[in-house]
Design goal:
- The complex is a heterodimer of chains A (715) and B (58).
- Chain A is 53% helix and 18% strand.
- Chain A is α+β, with helices and mostly antiparallel strands and 715 residues long.
- Chain A has a 6-stranded mixed β-sheet, with helices on both faces. Chain A has a 6-stranded antiparallel β-sheet with strand order 16-21-20-19-18-17.
- In chain A, a hairpin with a 5-residue loop joins strand 5 and strand 6.
- In chain A, helix 4 packs antiparallel against helix 5 (127-148), helix 7 (168-188) runs antiparallel to helix 12 (369-379) and helix 16 (449-459) crosses helix 17.
- Chain A is elongated.
- Residues 1-10 of chain A have low confidence and may be disordered.
- Helices cover 53% and strands 0% of the residues of chain B.
- The longest helix of chain B is centred in the first third of the chain and has 24 residues, at 4-27.
- Chain B contains 2 helices and no strands.
- The chains are: A alpha+beta (715), B mainly alpha (58).
- The A-B interface holds A 14, 24-26, 28-30, 33, 36-37, 42-50, 54, 90, 94, 97-98, 101-102, 105-106, 109, 129, 132-133, 136, 139-140, 143 and B 1, 4-5, 8-9, 11-12, 15, 18-19, 22-23, 26-27, 29, 31-36, 38-40, 42-43, 45-47, 50-56.
Chain lengths: 715, 58
């Protein structure tokens, strides 16, 4: 695909690539230095914030050598596809930075001129010097009010034309009226001036906007990187190259060492490790063997594997992730919508309040009636109120990814904090879902146990059944088989060196045989030329962290239940050992759904945790659902969130974190409301000078933002 | 103190120059990547001729 980009580039052109592997500023400098030395390559720039490489190449050969050198350095580059949005962010950020800087420099200067009259105290300064200071402050505030505060004026004008009262209206009125009144007073040489308040107000508000934009830009870069991680084409087993959009579930792909995995698939052949850090936050390589799920966009590190595509492109985890990022940025929980509505009326109330308090004080004959009206206007700006929830959610969504949690429904974190009952599925959720060979009875005189396992594994070569996976893990040398036959649900058979072997359940292999003991488990037998050779007993093991997880959840939410489709006594005793006293066994998917409904009817908020298709219905019905390591994408789309790293131990942490998110949002709203309610009466009474109002307003927004930033720590 | 009538206008001129310089430097993309430039000093420059900061739009 790199060739594609080069082919399109004309002679002497500027080329842009995304380099997702750039992990630090040092990487950028290293790449810049290495590439700058190449012939026909100039103006190399690697941006750390955007993970983007740009260079000018004088010839296609130059571009090619640059990319070869980049690969040799250990970085991968993807040509940029969608630049528009990021360019827009970059431009916006640049403009905002310029406005912010002008406001900052202007504010400091105006402050200095204003200080003279503050320092002069009661005697005041001589009128000619005061006039000089005022004129100087006027000149410096001019660019601040006309250039820096422009976004507020534009926003206010737009709101007024649409006949809505947005946040920009009081801000713009405050800045313009403070400035113009001060200008009039400067010319007349009487009254008070408020240049310092106007500049400070503008500067602090712009700081908030800038931080918000920067956070949004980072968000966007991450999301676009996700899109760029994917190659354009995937190689099928037959060597044919297929565009990703044309891939269908069931296609088998060949993925070579070092390649980016092009689609969500299940390994059917080979073993490798994959770098999934972009999804799970785990930096170590994840082991992938037959039956493991590979995620599109992760990197195949060690070996060549074949994978069966598990879904079409729109259902891949990476596609969901992009979608999720898009929706998370705009998601607002119910109480945030309420806050927004309140804020909207608030603006109208603020305007009326400011005007009427100004009028009242003017009527009372107070000299500083304008200062009071201005203070009311500034102090009551509901900026913090409208910032309180969105910023907390944006940060929480990003941070939860570090825990390996992929949230697909915005309500997840909001509702999770209210969970009163946790329902687990057993197989695959509380257990590992992979079988262990618990017992093996050999009835053969001539073949060793290992040889029997090898024969079994050879028969199962092409199968994805858990039995096959377990046998292959235990096997040593595999045999060549001819006439392979698979009877789904029964067993497999094949011919090795002229002998016919069958492996499977008794009905398929040798009718009438019964297992050597009554131990619960999955009994499978192997026969050779019609003679019984061996019995295998497979069992499922609970996950190592299942016990402690259940223990912690019991303390946190009280009620932990298990709905299992398993009917064996073995499963029941295992659950008892994990601390579940009365698990509901032998449940059909329909029974799971009706049981969840019954729980909800009795007033419980149910969190359903499952992994398989048999849980999908119950997960859709439950108030909140969490999928643990789902193999099937359908399960994932039914769930509100997915634990990609499959670590059950993080469930209590996620619950804790959801509580924290709720708490932070509540604190933010509480702070914003109480600040406004407390300070507005003081301002109306004339106790708050305009500069203090500007400071207080900005501090309250800053506190809300910083409080939300605490959520970026997930621990 | 009459000197203030000269010094204050001079300071205003300097402020205006610095404002223009700042806006120019922002538009010259000097603030686009703050992380990288902060660490540049920590890296040995073997090849001083090639240490150019990109100037896309110049």
């Amino acid at each position: 695909m790199n060739d594609l980009a080069i082919a399109h580039s004309s002679i002497e052109s500027r080329l842009h690539f995304l380099v997702p592997d750039v992990r630090c500023a040092g990487c950028c400098l290293k790449i810049e230095r290495e590439l700058s030395g190449l012939p026909d390559v100039s103006d190399v720039n690697v941006s750390y914030a955007e993970k983007r490489l740009s260079f000018t190449s004088a010839s296609p050969a130059g571009a090619e050598s640059a990319l070869t050198r980049l690969t040799a350095l250990g970085y991968q580059a993807a040509p940029e596809k969608k630049r528009g949005e990021l360019d827009m962010y970059q431009d916006q950020r640049r403009v905002l930075m310029a406005r912010l800087g002008v406001a900052g420099i202007g504010m400091m200067q105006v402050m200095m001129f204003a200080l003279t009259s503050y320092l002069a105290g009661t005697e005041g300064i001589q009128p000619e010097y005061e006039a000089l200071m005022r004129w100087a402050a006027f000149v410096v505030s001019l660019p601040v009010v006309l250039y820096s505060a422009m976004p507020f004026h534009q926003g206010a004008w737009r709101d007024i034309r649409n006949r809505t009262a947005g946040m920009d209206v009081p801000v713009s009125i405050a800045v313009i009226s403070a400035f113009s009144l001060s200008a009039v007073h400067t010319v007349l040489g009487s009254g008070e001036v408020y240049f310092d308040s106007a500049c400070m107000f503008t500067f602090f508000l712009l700081t908030g906007r800038y931080l918000e934009l920067a956070a949004r830009q980072n968000f966007h870069v991450e999301q676009l990187l996700g899109d760029h991680l994917l190659p354009e084409l995937a190689r099928t087993l037959s060597g044919q190259l297929k565009p990703l959009a044309e891939l269908q579930a069931g296609d088998v792909l060949l993925i070579e060492k070092g390649e980016v995995i092009p689609a969500d698939c299940i390994v059917t052949k080979g073993t490798t490790t994959a770098d999934e850090s972009a999804f799970t936050g785990e930096s170590g390589p994840a082991l992938k063997k037959i039956g493991s799920a590979l995620l599109a966009g992760t990197i195949n590190l060690d070996g060549e594997v074949e994978g069966r595509v598990s879904a079409s492109k729109s259902d891949w985890v990476i596609s969901h992730l992009s979608e999720l990022y898009r929706s998370a940025a705009s998601f607002r929980p119910s109480f945030a919508i309420l806050a927004d509505r309140v804020a909207r009326y608030f603006v109208g109330v603020v305007l009326i309040l400011a005007a009427s308090s100004g009028f009242f004080w003017w009527y009372q004959g107070a000299d500083n009636f304008f200062a009071i009206a201005l203070a009311v206007l500034v102090v009551s700006c509901p900026c913090a109120l409208s910032l309180a929830t969105p910023i907390a959610y944006a940060i929480a969504t990003g941070a939860s990814r570090k825990m390996g949690l992929l949230i697909s429904s915005g309500e997840f974190l909001e509702k999770l904090g209210r969970t009163s009952t946790v329902v687990f599925d057993k197989t695959g959720t509380l257990t590992e879902g992979s079988l262990k060979l618990k017992q093996m009875d050999s009835l053969s005189m001539t073949l060793s146990r290992q040889q029997l396992i090898d024969i079994g594994a050879s028969l199962e070569t092409s199968s994805l059944h858990p039995v096959a996976v377990t046998l292959r893990e235990l096997s040593g040398e595999l045999h060549e088989i001819s006439e392979p036959l698979v009877e789904p649900g029964f067993g497999v058979s094949g011919v090795i060196d002229g002998d016919t072997y069958r492996l499977g359940n008794p009905v398929f292999v040798l009718e009438g045989e019964t297992p050597p003991s009554n131990d619960e488990g999955n009994w499978v037998l192997l026969s050779g030329n019609g003679k019984l050779l061996a019995w295998f007993c497979f069992t499922d093991r609970p996950r190592a962290e299942a016990g402690t997880t259940i223990e912690r959840l019991k303390q946190m939410v009280g009620s932990v239940l298990v709905y299992s489709g398993d009917s064996s006594g073995n499963g029941r005793s295992m659950l008892n050992a994990l601390g579940i006293d009365s698990p509901s066994m032998s449940m059909t998917p329909d029974e799971k759904i009706s049981s969840v409904r019954a729980l909800q009817a009795s007033g419980e908020t149910v969190l359903m945790i499952g992994d398989g298709l048999n849980d999908a219905g119950a997960m859709a019905v439950a108030d909140i659902s969490l999928a643990v390591n789902p193999v099937d994408t359908l399960v994932q789309s039914a769930a509100d969130a997915t634990l990609v790293n499959g670590d059950l131990g993080s469930v209590p942490e996620v619950l804790c974190y959801a509580g924290k998110v709720r708490a932070v949002i509540k604190q933010n709203l509480f702070w914003a409301f109480s600040y406004n309610l407390l300070v507005i009466p003081l301002a109306v009474l004339g106790f708050v000078p305009p500069w203090l109002a500007a400071l207080g307003m900005s501090l309250s927004s800053l506190i809300v933002t910083l409080n939300a930033c605490r959520l970026s720590r997930t621990g | 103190m009459e000197v203030l009538f000269i010094l204050v206008p001079v300071s205003l001129i300097i402020v205006m120059i610095s404002l223009v310089a700042f806006v120019w430097s922002v538009n010259n993309q000097q603030y686009d990547d703050l992380d990288k430039e902060a660490e540049r000093i920590l890296f040995d420059e073997e090849n001083l001729g090639n240490t150019n900061i990109s100037e896309d739009n110049l």
